[in-house]
Amino acid sequence: MGIGTTHTIALIGSGTIGLSLAALHLTKDPHSKVIIYDTRPDLEAYINSTLPGYLVNADVQQCMARLHLAPTLKDAVERADVVQEQGPENLPFKQSLWPQIETHAPSHTLFLSSTSGIPASQQCTSMRDPSRLLVVHPYNPPHILPLLELVPSPQTSPETTTRTQSFFARLGRVPIPLTRECPGFVSNRLAFALLREACSLVSQGIVSVQDLDSIVTSSMGPRWSVAGPFKSYHAGGGTEGLRGFMEKIGGTVGMCWEESEKGYRENNIVVGGEWQEEVCRQAEEAYGKSGVGDTAERDRKTRRVLEAVGERERGR
Ligand SMILES: NC(=O)c1ccc[n+]([C@@H]2O[C@H](COP(=O)([O-])OP(=O)(O)OC[C@H]3O[C@@H](n4cnc5c(N)ncnc54)[C@H](O)[C@@H]3O)[C@@H](O)[C@H]2O)c1
Ligand SMILES: *[C@@H]1O[C@H](CO)[C@@H](O)[C@H](O)[C@H]1NC(C)=O
To answer: Which fold, 7-177?
Structure first.
């Protein structure tokens, strides 16, 4: 079985997430071979213009020499140890993809989907062996941010999950298995809960979009890269830990939770609600009509934060 020694990774779909995953494998494992299958007509030009920028602190030529484009899906997967798909986010595409991959890939190959929302239990309905499929949800951009959420379907075998976990751990990543499928997994559930509260506060006129962003980046943003909410408030509770925190500050916490729920109800903070126009207007006024800012600057700064908090950088 190849996972321990050989490293041929087939990436199906190489848009935003696929190219970033290619950079991850090429830079973190100097022996890996990456094979890309993507139907876009300008694939080679797109890769040539985008991928080298992701290969920071690496020998770009050496990395590019280990990258191969496959003319067909069969060519991509027939010698792969790991197949990860990040094609379009639609169910028919993913459902029809896996049986084809299953037909052509070796029997030891891991089958992984980067989906942000289509659970493995729905993707696997036409597979011969659904125990092989696992959702591995990256946090964009995965060549920089270490988290991978491993989300098994009820049919996914425990072995598939443990092998995937050790595979990504060996690349210096942080793979976290969830016990079961849930909409949004964990990272997006947390992020969108904060987004909802942020939209609510702005729509009530309590704070502007730009000031809210400043509040996050100058307080919980840096804090959360060092300690998550539980460890933070466990420390905040002093010698009594989280228990003490809830005893001392629990009243305020409860009041905030009630206010938040009242705010969502009274201001109809649902997707497409009236509040949305004003929040989007403020975002455009603060940051320009197009959201595509300088991702190179974002990525450079994020790397430095991760280096500061001790992310292990292997293969450098
Ligand atoms: N963008 C994110 O922040 C993010 C984060 C986590 C997970 N995801 C998931 O990753 C997947 C891809 O998202 P993205 O943002 O990279 O999208 P994208 O549109 O940038 O990339 C999709 C790629 O799939 C290719 N493609 C289309 N049809 C194909 C086919 N039949 N065979 C092979 N390739 C095909 C397209 O040419 C394109 O390059 C989705 O499932 C999404 O939910 C995205
Ligand atoms: C991409 O780069 C390779 C290597 O430099 C080159 O051979 C190839 O012609 C380039 N392709 C395109 C479409 O730019």
So the answer is: Rossmann fold (3.40.50)
CA 242 to ligand 1 center in whole angstroms: 40
Q: Where are the domains of the chain?
A: 7-177, 188-314
Q: Does 42 sit in the ligand 2 pocket, CB within 6 Å?
A: no
In CATH terms, the superfamily for domain 188-314 is N-(1-d-carboxylethyl)-l-norvaline Dehydrogenase; domain 2 (1.10.1040.10)
pLDDT tens, position by position, 254-287: 999 999 999 999 999 999 999 999 999 999 999 9
pTM tops 0.85, yes or no: yes
pLDDT of residue 31: 92
Where does residue 123 rank: exposed (0-12), middle (13-18), buried (19+ CB within 10 A)?
Answer: buried
Is residue 181 part of the annotated active site? The answer reads: no
Q: Nearest-CA neighbor of 120 among 73, 145, 152, 82?
A: 152
Catalytic residue among 78, 85, 102, 149: 149
Exposed, middle or buried: residue 257 (CB in 10 Å: 0-12, 13-18, 19+)?
Answer: exposed
Q: Is the predicted pLDDT of residue 2 greater than 60, yes or no?
A: no
Extract the runs of DSSP E, i.e. beta strands, from 144-265. 147-152, 174-177
Q: What is the pLDDT of residue 5?
A: 59
The CA radius of gyration of the chain, in Å to the nearest whole number, is 22
The answer to whether 146 and 311 are in contact (CB under 8 A) is yes
- Give distance in angstroms: CA of 92 to centre of ligand 2: 33
Q: Using one digit for the tens of pLDDT, what is the confidence trace for 43-56?
A: 999 999 999 999 99
Tens digits of per-residue pLDDT, 161-184? 999 999 999 999 999 999 999 999
Q: Is the CB of 38 under 6 A from ligand 1?
A: yes
Ligand 2 site, residue 140, Cβ cutoff 6 A: no
